[in-house]
Every structure is written in structure tokens, then in C-alpha cells.
Amino acid sequence: MLALKMRVPAFFTGFLLTIFTLSLLFSLDWRHQSRFFPLVISIPTVTMLIIQLGVDLLKPRKAGESLGAVMDLPVDTNVPTNKVLTRAGIMLGWLAGLVMSIWLLGFVVSIPLFVCLYLSIQAREKWSIVLIGTAAIITLEVGLFHKVLHVYWAQPVFPFLKDAVFSVIGA
To answer: Which end of the chain is more exposed for a tag (fewer CB within 10 A), N or C?
Structure first.
């Protein structure tokens, strides 16, 4: 008989599994075009999380093995804690700004804007890289998601920029 042991990774995996399963279930009631993206993301993610939960619960761990031994990337313990927290806070700020921008301006405007600003300000890339990355995202967003897949774009709080983009691309 298999011995199930509750471990810290299993709690985290279970938490993520709960969130993605709920997003999958909630999206089933949406219009076909609206639920396409959540389903494309949630179905493979839920599948991988179920597999990971099985590994977390069933894989035997050696005595004294630290949690870091199951991580993909080694942890550099030489970096001061305040620097790690600062970096995490900066990234959290960027993500919060992206979410706020999506709510206010919509995906069509926010995603290319985020890529452009992040590459230029945070990553300090050369302008050629910034422009190539931004152009690639615009091409993917407009070409694939809008023109080919006909994704329904939710109405943002301030739709004038989204409407201006669609009038330029002829949508």
C-alpha cells in the first residue's frame, strides 16, 4: 500500500490545483470565445498539477533531504535577504501594474506596452531589442489571437485606446 505523506510542496501544489480547477470550472459558463483562453491555459495546467501532486505525495524523500533538493534551480544563499526582497517587490510591482493596465486599458494595449516598458526600463535593453520584442508581441497578439483565433477582447474601463488600435488594424 502506498504511504501518503503530506509535505510542504504538496500544500502549494494543492493550492495551485484548487485555483486552476476553479478557473476551469468558472470559465465553462462563459461564451465560447471568452472561455477559449482560460481553457487552453487551465486544462494542461490542471493535468500537470495533478501529476505533480502525485509526485509530491508519493515520491519517497531521503532522510535529512532539504526542500531545496527538489527545486529546479539552486538557491544562491550569498545574496542578502533585503536584496532578494527588493527584487521580489519590484517584480510584484511590475505585475500589479500590468494587471491594473489590463483592467484600465485592455489586453490589446497593455501587453505590448508592458513588454516595451519592461524591456526598456527594468531590463535596460538596447532599443533595437525593445522594438523587436514589442513588434513580436504586437504581431502575435493581432495576427494570431485577433485575426486567426478571433479572441473576444473584454471591454476595459477606458476603451478609447483599444478602439483606436482596432481602427488602425482594420478590425
So the answer is: N
